[in-house]
Amino acid sequence: MVEVETGLPPEAPPGTQPCPEFDPQNQSVVQRTEAKAAELGVSTRTVQTKRSKYTSQGLWGLVDQRAVQEWEATGRADARLIEVIRQALDAETDVSAGTRSRLIRRVVNAVEATYGPEWFRSRAGARSTSSSTCFPPAVTPSARR
After folding, report:
1. For range 84-91, the mean pLDDT
2. Could you tell me the CA-to-CA distances from 33 to 26, 42, 43, 71, 111 in Å, in that order?
3. Can you give the pTM of this predicted structure?
4. Helices (H), ranges, 1-145
């Protein structure tokens, strides 16, 4: 991005002449952007986007934000549900391994006892497409019967 802006690569020694394709005296910003895109093997739009981010945010704008994004292992699941699941798992720690279906049944029963039988149904419409906010439909109270 520095080369597109100034015509010189980063950390170029003083007195260095710009490459002809990046010389601001002879090439427009559009031409320098096209030359950088060809050099990197990407589209002109990609270079424009990166240049815009570099201009507004500096070097941080070029960092893939997914790499530094904080996330929870439980995704967007309701914190109350996670707490009930943790309690159920803790209760199972020193006993027979049991089955997944038994654990799910115990969690569903605990949630219904604590938050009411409508808790799952009220969240069924609130699920996002990227992650669910409660159990999948196969383990909701209506599906158990």
Report:
1. 88
2. 13, 11, 10, 35, 57
3. 0.48
4. 2-6, 29-40, 44-57, 79-92, 100-115, 119-124, 141-144
